[in-house]
Amino acid sequence: MRGTDGLQKVLYLLIVVLGIYIIYKGGSVLLSTSMIQDRLDYGNIQRSLEDSAIRTWAPGYAAAVENGDGESLASLWMEQAVPVYSHLAKGQAEEETETTGTDSGEIQNEAKGQKEKKAKEGGQAGTAPQILTETDAETTNQTDVQVESEEVLQASGSSVISEALRTQLQDFDYLLNHYYTVDSGTTADADLLDVDMLLAEDLKIQKKKGVPQILIYHTHSQETFIDSREGEEADSIIGMGTVLAEELQNTYGYGVIHDTGVYDLVDGVLDRSAAYDYARDAVEQILEENPTIEVVIDLHRDGVEGQKFVTEINGKPTSMIMFFNGISRNSQDEPLTYLQNPYIAQNLAFSLQMQLAARERYPDFTRNIYLKAERFNLHLRPRSLLIEAGTQLNTVEEEKNAMVVLAQLLDQVLCG
Questions:
Q1: pLDDT tens digit string along 267-282?
Q2: Fewer Cβ atoms within 10 A, N terminus or C terminus of the chain?
Q3: Whose CA is closest to 264, among 322, 223, 324?
Q4: How many domains does the chain have?
C-alpha cells in the first residue's frame, strides 16, 4: 500500500508539473500574438488589473465613484491613498464624453516606447534618409464645427481668428470638450492650454528651395492599411510620408528630408518597445547634420479596434487625422522630470493652430487633439508634430488623399 501511495504522489507531481508547463507555454504563445502585444502597448491590461484590484479590495470606493459620489471624505482619501487608481475618479467623466473612436484604452500610444528607456546596444539602425530634390518628386458635433469654421477669419502662423471664437476658446471647458481628448494617465489645465499664448505663437518659416527645412520620419515604419500589398513600402505609412514630402516640396516649395529608417524591427521581429529610442538617435543625427531643419513630423497610422475614420474632401474619400501631443506630466499634474521637453508650449501651439486651420477649411478632417503623458520625441524641435493618419481599416487611396490635404494645411500654418 505504501508503494502505491508513493506512486500516486509521483503521478500527482507529474500532473502538476505538466499543468504548469501547459499554462506557461500557452501563455507564451498568447502573449506573442500581435493582438496581445498591441493591448500590452496600449495599457489596457494594466488598467484592467488596476480596476480589478481596487474593486476587490475597496468595492465601496469603486461604487461611490461610479455612482457619482466622488466628493465624499472617504473617496477623496482613497484617491490620494491609491493614486494608481485616480483615473477612475478623474478620467471616467472624460471617457464618457469622448467621441467615438478616441477611447483612451484603444488609442495607439505605444506605451513601452513612450517611456523612452535607454536604447539597447546593437539595435537595428535605420536606412539612410531620403532627401528629395527639386526634380524628385473623434469627431465633434457637426453643428458646433460648422459654426466655428464660419467664425475663423484666418488660421495661420499668426492665428488671427474672430473675437467670438477667441472668446469661446478662452472658456477652458469649451476648449477641452471641443478640441481635446485627454488620456487618463495625464492631466491638462488652463495654464497648460492658455489659448492666448498658444495662438500668439508665431510658427511661420521662410521657404528656402534646396535647403532642408522639414523632416518627416516614422517611429513605427511597419504600419499598413486594409488593402496594403505585403512588402510594398509605397502602401505603408512610409509611402504616405513620401506623398506628404513630395507635396510639401513640389507643390509648396519647402526643402524636405524624408527619413525612411526602420526603428520598430529588431532582427526581423516587430518590437515597438524601444522604437522611440532608436528613432530619437537617428533623428538627432539628422538634425545635427542639417541644422536648418525647423519642422519635425513623426507620421503614424492609428490603431483603433474596429474603427475607421474617413470623410470626403473635394469629392474624394479621405482618411481623418489626429494630432497627438506628449505633455510630460502625469495624472497627478506632476511633471515627468525624466522626460523633459522645453518645447511643450510650442508643440501645443502647433497642433492647435493646425486644428484651427483644418476646422476652417475642412471641418471633418481632424479628430480631437489627443494629449498623453509621455514625450514622444517632441522635444527635438519647437515645431514638432506627431500625426496619426487614419487607422488599420482605412485604404491606401484614402491615406494618400489625406496627405494632400495635410500638406495644404501645413503650408497654411507655416507660411502664414
A1: 888 888 799 999 999 9
A2: N
A3: 223
A4: 2
